[in-house]
Amino acid sequence: MRTASEAAVFRPRPPWWGGDLQTLRNSLLPAPKQIAGERLYLAMADGSGDRLWALYNAGSDPNKPLVVLIHGLAGCEDSSYIIAAAGFFLNHGYATLRLNLRGAGPSRPSCGLQSHAGRSRDLCDAIMALPPATAAQGVVVVGFSLAGNMSLKFAAEYGHDLPVRALVTVSAPIDLAVTSANMLRPRNRLYNRKLLRDFRRECLAPGAIVSPPERAAIKAAGNFVELDDNFVAPRNGYRDAHDYWESCQARGFLAQIKLPTLMLHAHDDPIVPIGPCLQYPWEGNSYLFPEFSRFGGHVGFHGVGKRLWHLDRVLYFLTQML
After folding, report:
1. Which residues of 232-258 are buried (b: 16+ CB within 10 A; e: fewer)?
2. 142 near 118, Cβ under 8 Å?
3. Residue 8: per-residue pLDDT
4. In angstroms, what CA-CA distances link 306 with 45, 131, 263?
5. Which residues pair with 168 in a beta bridge?
6. Within 10 Å of residue 174's Cβ, how many Cβ atoms?
7. How far is the C-alpha of 175 from the C-alpha of 170, rounded, in Å?
8. Which is nearest to 184 in space by CA: 221, 146, 145, 223?
9. Prior bond to 15 cis, omega within 30?
10. Residues 6+ apart with CB under 8 A from 290
């Protein structure tokens, strides 16, 4: 495991001390002002007719790659951390693409199907569907939370076939079974309730194609284990939730990644436990750069001086690797 320098150590911004407050700050405070962009419609190649909606902004430096920002579960282009990231990279000259996954946010009306942790082909299709000029200098993928898992799987399966120059994940689960079990803990009841409510709404919003039994399963699920077992897994050809987790979790794909990959995670993340990251043999793949902060919560990292530590670390990584 690579050790961050003293200058790179995360220091929480008062009064957002502890993993829960760092995590909740994204929801408790208003999102940054929306950034207008060019709307792109990226067709999926699976014959479904689904199209992912995205917002593109050209960068001021034509020699820098396109940064593709991918939201987590129940998020979209309007998520606070996505808007903040887009503004940050635009300020540093990078073009950005805020991608709405299948069925998420603005993509819901144009998608009958739904994204999940293993839909790595969707990201491949989206990049292939980009106007050539937008990716002329290559692509950097930044996946947050559950999209980080999907992005790591994508890197292993498709990274060598596409102009992807680097990958970054922030608070990504690499073991879906462990993360799902963690969400069942009593202390995470509020997180489970909010995420499940938002994801249910997304799954059932106009545009979604769900059968009556699927609709009933979505409404009846009291947690993500039940939702994965009774809706996500059977809908996508997996035997059950455990088969879905085992087949899709990034842990099984990390050894195959052959492009520079920065993985940021906090020890005090209340949603995605860091345990699987600490147990993984990182020294077996020199392309992987894990960086674990003592504090930061889940997609938090709100630092002193109004800095977003994870974005500073991504920028430093790109200047070193590209």
Report:
1. bbbbbebeebbebbebbbbbebbeebe
2. no
3. 83
4. 41, 35, 22
5. 142, 262
6. 26
7. 14
8. 223
9. yes
10. 1, 2, 263, 265, 277, 280, 282
Burial code (b: 16+ CB inside 10 Å, e: under 16) for 278-291 equals eebeeeeeebbbbb
Task: With cut-offs at 50, 70 and 90, classify the pLDDT of residue 243.
Answer: very high
Cα distance between residue 36 and residue 33, in whole Å:
10
What are 70's two structure tokens?
């991918």
CB 231 within 8 A of CB 131: no
Beta-carbon neighbour count of residue 18 at 10 Å?
Answer: 15
Going from N- to C-terminal start, the domains of the chain cover 6-321
Within a 10 A sphere around the Cβ of 137, how many other Cβ atoms?
19
Q: Which CATH number fits domain 6-321: 3.40.50.1820, 3.30.390.30, 3.90.25.10, 1.10.10.10?
A: 3.40.50.1820
Q: How many CB atoms lie within 10 A of CB 202?
A: 22
The predicted-structure confidence for 71-103, as pLDDT tens digits, reads as follows: 999 999 999 999 999 999 999 999 999 999 999
Residue of 104, 85, 257, 274 whose CA lies nearest to 173: 274
Inter-residue contact 259 to 228 (CB < 8 Å): no
Q: Whole-angstrom Cα distance, residue 100 to residue 6?
A: 36
Residues 6+ apart with CB under 8 A from 194: 27
Beta-carbon contacts of 211 under 8 Å, excluding residues fewer than 6 positions away, are none
Distances (CA, A) of 85 to 35, 190, 221, 320: 11, 26, 33, 19
What's the pLDDT tens digit per position in 197-239?
999 999 999 999 999 999 999 999 999 999 999 999 999 999 9
Which positions ≥6 away from 202 have C-beta within 8 Å? 74, 103, 104, 108, 114, 208
Mean pLDDT of the chain: 96
Polymer length in residues for the chain:
322
**What's the CA gap between 287 and 289, in Å, rounded?**
7
